[in-house]
Design brief:
Helix content: 25-40%
Shape: globular
Structural class: alpha+beta
Number of strands: 22
Length: 542
Amino acid sequence: MKNRFMKKAAAIALAAVMGTTAASSAVMASCTSFTECGKTHIAEKSAEIAAGWDEFLTAYKTALNEDSGAQADYYITLGDGAKQLISMFTGFDLSWFQSVEMVQVESMSVTNNKMYAEFEILLNDTSLATLNFLMDLETSVAYMQVPEISESWFMVDYNVIMQQAGADMGISIGQMVDIIKSIIASLPDGTTLTNLMNRYFGIVYDHANNVEPTTATLTAGGISEEVTVLGATYGVAEIGNMMIDLISTFKEDEEIKGIVENITGLFGEAGAGIYEQIISSMDQLSADITESLGDLSALPSDAMTCELYENADDEVIGALVNLDVENQSGGFCFYTTDDGEQKGLQIEGMFEDYYVSLSGTGAETDGLFDGTYTLSLNDTAIAQINVYDSALYENDDTVFSCCEISILPQEAPQAEEGAENAYDPMAQVRQVLNMLSSYSLLIAADKNTSFEHQDILISAFSGGTELASISVMVDVSEGPAIPDVASLGTIVDINDQSNMENVQADLMNNLPALLEKLTSAGVPQELINSVMGVESAEEPVA
């Protein structure tokens, strides 16, 4: 039991140091020891993180507490390869299909607890139907209308639906929104976040056994830099005592107490006593660690080895963490190097006999970045990743950050003499990779994405030919006017079947016009007949 616990304690310490050092590039340091460098680094990074965190909180508090509007466009296309593949499995000829699009505009009224949205569905750029959707957040009742089917509005009571599904939450959607708003309002601001990061990561660094700095050549992606190596070790005893110090500080931390009590207080009686339960569990954890330490002299003094790398410009450009305790080993490293023209990257993670690495080089020209990287598993290159900044759309100067992932084909390894029956743990991996080797994926997003605008494109390719693509464009803008329920006209409760006859009559009256739109969009009459249950193409539905 003690051995298992010490493995857990060491793993927590490893995660703490990795979390502090994994993004160590380009932080000014100029330090003389691992502890000093780590504390300087976390002070710099916590300030950067706090600034972004405050921006996030401000944006979401504004969105949740003020009336707002948005417009979104979702666009899906299929290439010939994808259409052939789908046709093979479904039996339907999709050669006519080009694209499907959904355009959405919506408004949210915090003051009136209402949300309203209008949707338009287009097939092959031909408008098929629209959907109007009004939600009363306070009562969890929604109203939906498809004018092309019926002028009536369908009323859906989500409370009834949840009860029928046996998942009644006991609160309305509006109350859930209020809880989310209260949780966001209870989260710590950037200053508090900075204090917490410096406080707790500082304890991690204070327990390091610093070693004398050395010099070395650090290489990442074939790009080398001369560095000062600031190293330290953590024995099992230091890890255990570090955990005890972290727990002791946590128990007396008024900022932590305030955050926990603010959030748990939102849940009334259900949240009562949670902070006290956390403190009690911390007491038990501290006692377990103290008991597990036992004879300190018998425990390894170098269970974890850490290094930070500082270049000639006093920038921390890499970090390494190695863990070896209780017959288990693991490691992580993150290097970024620069020769003035090319930037090298090397990321590696290892556990026992398995390790993953990402390495390669890139360069920035006129503010645009371009790089090529290789993802490997146990020395087997499994994917090539190209990243670059580009203007994807013609006549559009918006810069997109792009990531293109291509699966690499695999060759069967040459068996050593006398090892024909040796177990090959990568055999199945190589088999799957060969199946996927003709495919690639492109992911692109607006480089200057903000809370007011988001633009994302995902495309799949086979042999260089596009199979399918999905694009999403969202803009914060003035939304449509929110109608009053009393102005909707005829409202039909979908749970009341006696009111559905008129709706069915409306559908039958409008069906020919709907089918004509499908035909105009390019849908074959044969497919329409098949979906509508008409056996012969000589008997068109419309």
